[in-house]
Amino acid sequence: xxEFTAADFKKGQPRWCPxxxxxxxxASLHKALAEIGVAxxxxxxxxxxxxxxxxxxxxxxxxMNTIHGRAAAIATGAKVANPNLTVWQISGxxxxxxxxxxxxxxxxxxxxxxxxxxxNNRIYGLTKGQYSPTSPRGFVSKSSPYGxxxxxxxxxxxxxxxxxxxxxxxxxxxxxxTVEILKAAYQHKGxxxxxxxxxxxxxxxxxxxxxxKPDVRKKNAIYVKHGExxxxxxxxxxxxxxxxxxxxxVKIGENGITEKDILVHDAKAEDNTLQLKLALMGNGDGFxxxxxxxxxxDAPTYDDCVTAQIEExxxxxxxxxxxxxxxxxxxxxxx
Length: 335
Hints:
Order of helices and strands: HEEHEHHEHEHEHHEEEEHEHH
Strand content: 15-25%
Structural class: alpha/beta
Helix content: 25-40%
Oligomer: single chain
């Protein structure tokens, strides 16, 4: 049992709007870190710029606000320089996927052992309401008064396309679900992306209303768990089956459908085809939004490989430090 409590990770008074999803997530992060049990002095929380990126100020750990979009780059350096440090990277959808998009994909491609949190409210909140890379087509904002003419990034698709090995999703108001995926991200060795769906109560309130409250979440979301059937609904009356190259929603008990016909979730499958289909469900397509750990596959990590390479090269060299290096060349003694 962990010797820490959530209070051991708390610091300061959060300066977010009342009702902001960041408050909910922060409380879940405090709780998750206490249950994980890594000491605050062995933990670093690194962010970029934005409302969500203020989060390190409220953590009694090592923390750093970097410049806009560079959280993954700084977090990478911290992890490679100190492999024993547990690093949590906090980014919003703008900070993480717009100016920071290049760092996001390469952190996943390299499989650096980072816990990468993407707080997705589909808006730039700090700069007062411009559309972001995850805002839907047609979204009206201060920077798109007639509606955006762009299709958004879908974080899971970007993560998988960059050969990511871990992707999970939770709703900020679902503390139990959020803590669960944060703990799973910590247990995963490699780049672990957790998308947190949250509302910006000032500039984009209601963007995740189909899953934000418990009463509608049971109807519109599916909690996926490795090794368990993909069943959902207010009374667990619906399930997912494979139809051709896609998925199909069926009602258990109708047309001879039984629980044995329902797909079983495999988060460990190397082939991400079905995992990606799960991750892209929802948003008015007749499918539920997938919550939980969608992909969790083991692979070599960048930081481990760099450390091993350094040790291998050192072992093959005649010198192992700067003083020994100097002695490999001709030496003169001046009297």
